[in-house]
Design goal:
heterodimer; A: alpha+beta; Porin; 2 domains; 16-stranded antiparallel beta barrel; elongated; B: alpha/beta; Rossmann fold; four-stranded parallel sheet; 8 strands; about 10% strand
Chain lengths: ~450, ~300
């Protein structure tokens, strides 16, 4: 800029008509200007250099701060390889008219933990989960549940499995004991469910939850639409399977798909089919015949098949799930079994169909409050060549449709704790409408667990 | 049917022979950085948007499907994604993105972190054991991550190593020029007293030498109670602040409360790429951040 200005000036002065004296004067002046100009440029350059240096110094200073080695000290002792451990504890206060043996689910048999918790204060299941990578190939996880049963504390292995990390092409293999990939809720731990008690159909078919001791294979299709196909093979000993089955007794196949609709909506749908051939599966009834003092349970032998479809839809504004969300979940189950019922005295052919499902809607108002509604409905069609055996097995074969409405409200002080109040209008059995109340806390301590969709 | 099969074949055949590197970025800032450094040699998917809280993302089916196809995970690390990323890794059946694999890139592994808690206890709220993970609020940290990410891209895709090198040199030049410019612009902000809603501006205030006098969330990740907020008010009587900062993805209830109660100006910063309309990439993210800070000053 300066240069061109100067050149213009010079050109202008040169082209104008001047005398000789003036020219020498001008020459002198020009050399002055030139010298002055050069020193100025030098000064400018120096200043620029300095400025550049200071910016660079500033930058390296910041970089140095950024690169400062972390002060974390690595422990040399063996406990740095401890697995991630978390414990889930819960306790509740419950109130209803019918508990224990008084509670009946018409058309279904009750098994294991499938009944209601003790009235009043009770300690729920305490669950301890440990998980870690085993090596470069495998991941392992085990969950032990402790609960009281008839005055004694029982330890139960809920899950204990290993799973591949290192297989490729979307394939994962899992082995051990795990919750079967049937339906949506079944694979989640009970504390991650949205209500204090299991859906009636889970209670009626599985005694709350279906698990398998065996192997699971799954494959995720390489597409933007999520598609997972898989199956499990198990020993068939977990209810409603039963018996040794020479070690191979239950099969399950499933398919799952899901995706997003825009940024705020997501969904998942699944179908699954489970089958087994139970040997001597005992019904919870079991009346004392002939006063011998020993119970004489009714046993089932035959084939059992269960099919499921489930659908989950979730909405969260902008996909920001933490602030506000709504979940709609529905599942349907259909059980079909064919075989024989017997006890020590009698034998009958049996054809049983049990079905039902639930739909629930959960609305999270803000990070600390959630509320939800659930509706359950079941049905059954049980026929046997000798009704007396059905009666002995405590199976209601009138075709009654058990129903239940549930409403819950949750307060979530943080991600790790929850207080829940729930009220049910329960019509599980024909003659005994009941109002059930639950007040429950659930907390998790230890490692930060990750919850699936 | 025949037509369908031939169409399918055509689709398979016509897909580009040299497959691009599939990058799964957990947050938009890393998606943007990957795009800067990878250019046409990669395809980038961002698992979250600038309006989502990266602490709380659902391991949705769509994310599993994307993780299944990823060659490289570019995430923040330092437990920011602990609630969802491990699940994606486990369910995807994809060796390349497992912990320790070449396709597992955690940005916080390449910078030093501040706010490392002296003691770990959940009564202190949602504390991160490894330190504050929100490093993308400082362009200096981003530069360090960019260098490491370039090396990773070269490792994974050696055929295009030269291209990555060129892109890195170009980016380095543009980014350092931009940093100088931002630092010049930010001169008047030096020492400015600020209040933050959540403690996710540590690196920004370290970089610009802002003076954080209070945090609205008494416990990280837990919405502040009225008592907490009154404590902040008392602190501010002793050491007053000029502005209160919240991130675009956060509900601004607490920040609004403070700016209504006092004459402290509320400033909502984009926090990451896509946090507002103007923040389209990393450059405009900082342009906008500084512009907002300066105009509130």
């Amino acid at each position: 800029m300066n240069k061109s200005c100067l050149a213009l000036l010079i050109a202008a002065s040169l082209s104008s008509p001047v005398f000789a004296d003036d020219i020498s004067d001008l020459k002198q002046e020009l050399s002055h200007i030139r010298a002055d100009y050069e020193t100025r440029i030098q000064q400018l350059e120096q200043r620029l250099n300095q400025a550049e240096k200071s910016v660079k110094a500033n930058n390296t200073a910041v970089t140095k701060i950024a690169q400062r080695p972390a002060t974390r000290t690595k422990s040399a002792s063996n406990n740095s390889f401890n697995p991630a451990i978390s414990v889930v504890m819960n306790g509740q206060f419950s109130d209803y008219r019918r508990e224990g043996d008084d509670y009946e689910l018409d058309g279904f048999s009750q098994h294991g933990e499938g009944g209601l918790a003790t009235k009043g204060f009770s300690l729920g299941e305490s669950e301890m989960t440990m998980s870690a990578s085993i090596d470069q190939l495998l991941f392992g996880q085990s969950t032990f549940a402790l609960h009281d049963h008839e005055g004694e504390t029982e330890v139960e292995i809920e899950e204990a499995f290993i799973e591949t990390l290192g297989l490729d092409n979307g394939v994962t293999i899992r082995a051990g004991r795990f919750f079967s990939p049937i339906g949506y809720l079944n694979e989640k731990h009970i504390h991650a469910w949205n209500f204090a008690d299991a859906p009636l159909i889970y209670r009626g078919l599985f005694g709350n939850q279906l698990s398998t001791d065996g192997v699971k294979l799954s494959y995720v299709v390489p597409s933007d639409l999520f598609i997972e196909l898989g199956g499990t093979v198990g020993n068939g000993d977990q209810y409603p399977g039963s018996g040794e089955n020479s070690g191979l007794g239950d099969w399950l196949v499933y398919a799952r798909t899901g995706g997003d609709m825009g940024v705020s909506h997501s969904w998942q749908a699944s179908v699954s089919h489970w089958q087994s051939s139970p040997e001597d599966r005992a019904y919870s009834g079991g009346h004392d015949h002939g006063g011998t003092g020993t119970p004489d349970p009714v046993l089932f032998n035959g084939d059992t098949e269960i099919s499921n479809i489930s659908l989950v839809y979730k909405w969260a504004p902008n996909g920001n799930f933490r602030q506000q969300n709504f979940t709609l979940l529905g599942e349907l189950f259909y059980l079909n079994e064919d075989g024989k019922l017997n006890n020590s005295a009698e034998l009958a052919t049996y054809d049983g169909k049990q079905y039902g499902g639930f739909v629930e809607g959960i609305y999270q108002v803000n990070p600390q409050w959630r509320t939800g509604l659930r509706y359950d409905r079941l049905g059954s069609n049980l026929t046997a060549s000798d009704d007396e055996l059905l009666t002995d097995a405590d199976l209601d074969f009138s075709g009654y449709h058990p129903q239940r409405y549930s409403l819950m409200l949750e307060w979530l002080p943080s991600e790790f704790s929850r207080v829940r109040a729930q009220i049910n209008h329960d019509k599980s059995s024909r003659d005994n409408d009941d109002t059930q109340l639950f007040l429950q806390y659930t907390v998790s301590i230890g490692a930060h667990g990750a919850h699936s969709f | 049917m025949k037509k369908f099969i031939s169409l399918l074949l055509l689709l398979v055949v016509s897909s580009p022979a040299a497959a691009k590197l599939n990058v799964f970025a957990c947050e938009p800032e890393w998606a943007s950085l990957s795009q800067e450094l990878g250019g046409d040699n990669i395809t980038v998917f961002s698992a979250t948007t600038g309006l989502q809280d990266p602490h709380y993302i659902q391991a949705r089916p769509s994310l599993i499907a994307k993780a299944r196809q990823a060659d490289l995970l570019v995430c923040t690390g330092a437990e920011l994604e602990i609630g969802w990323l491990p699940l994606l890794q486990r369910k995807a059946g994809n060796t390349s993105i497992q912990v320790g694999a070449n396709g597992y890139f955690m940005a916080t592994d390449y910078v030093s972190l501040s706010d490392i808690p002296a003691s770990l206890d959940r009564s202190q709220g949602d504390v991160h054991a490894a330190g504050n993970p929100h490093i993308q609020t400082s362009p200096v940290k981003i530069m360090l991550v960019a260098r490491a990410l370039t090396q990773r891209l070269q490792q994974l895709d050696p055929d295009n190593a030269v291209a990555y090198q060129q892109r890195w040199l170009d980016f380095e030049q543009r980014w350092s020029t931009a940093i100088d410019r931002w630092q010049q612009q930010a001169q008047p902000l030096k020492g400015m007293a600020i209040v933050v809603q959540h403690n996710n501006w540590t690196y920004l205030s370290e970089w610009l030498e802002l003076n954080k006098v209070a945090v609205l969330e008494a416990k990280a990740g837990i919405p502040p109670t009225i008592k907490d907020l009154n404590n902040v008010l008392n602190t501010l009587k002793v050491s007053p602040a000029k502005i209160v900062i919240n991130a675009a993805y956060q509900p601004s209830k607490a920040t609004d409360w403070l700016s209504n109660k006092t004459d402290i100006t509320k400033v909502t910063l984009p926090f990451t790429v896509g946090g507002n309309e103007q923040s389209k990439d990393l450059f405009s993210l900082f342009d906008n951040t500084l512009q907002r800070l300066l105009s509130a000053q």
